[in-house]
Amino acid sequence: MNLNYIMPSYKLTYFNMRGRAEIIRYIFAYLDIKYDDHRIEYADWPEVKPTLPFAKIPILEVDGVYLHQSLAIARYLTKNTDLAGKTELEQCQVDAVVDTLDDFMSRFPWAEKKQDVKEQMFNELLTCEAPHLLQYLDTYLGEKEWFIGNSVTWADFYWEICSTTLLVFRPDLLDVHPRLVALRKKVQAIPAIADWIQRRPLTRL
């Protein structure tokens, strides 16, 4: 153990919502890492945007170094922890589940300004595409306790986060998938995650 090791200083910048930053917040909570959860309002975004690398958030500042892309940040934070998977094979499986979920979530037109177009596209994805993805995930999970290995990984966190957002738009989405519902509840029952869910700002997304 390096007695001279000093924990880095972390500052997370994102909107006042769960969104793409929530996986980072879950990891910080689970690993009991202190950080500055800096939330900006949409009205301030035009002023903040030009100051950031690639003009996107979330951004994680690590001792003044800017990191971007939420999943890259998540992989950085979970590296050398069991959350990433206990073996290289498990780590690849974790990444695959996360990327599968993210591929689907990225198809939603979150920034579409025409409400009728947005609603139509959301409805098509939730009605026609989501059932296939959920069946694949259900089969992959099977009777296991977690998606990968014998302990929780950040793939389980990401499932809980993504499904929470999807349920906002389609509350009955998981009614025929009790195993996926059970996994959500297992993640939510982890003490550090339960504590974060209880005290985080209440937002729709």
From TrEMBL:
One of its GO terms (molecular function) is glutathione transferase activity. Residues 8-85 form the GST N-terminal domain. It is found in: Cytoplasm. Its main location: cytoplasm. Gene3D superfamilies: 1.20.1050.10, Glutaredoxin (3.40.30.10). The keyword Ubl conjugation does not apply. GO terms for cellular component: cytoplasm. It comes from the Eukaryota. It catalyses: 2-glyceryl-prostaglandin H2 = 2-glyceryl-prostaglandin D2; RX + glutathione = an S-substituted glutathione + a halide anion + H(+); prostaglandin H2 = prostaglandin D2. Its cofactor is glutathione. Its EC number is 2.5.1.18, 5.3.99.2. Keywords: Cytoplasm, Fatty acid biosynthesis, Fatty acid metabolism, Isomerase, Lipid biosynthesis, Lipid metabolism, Prostaglandin biosynthesis, Prostaglandin metabolism, Transferase. Residues 87-205 form the GST C-terminal domain. Belongs to the GST superfamily. Sigma family. This is Hematopoietic prostaglandin D synthase.
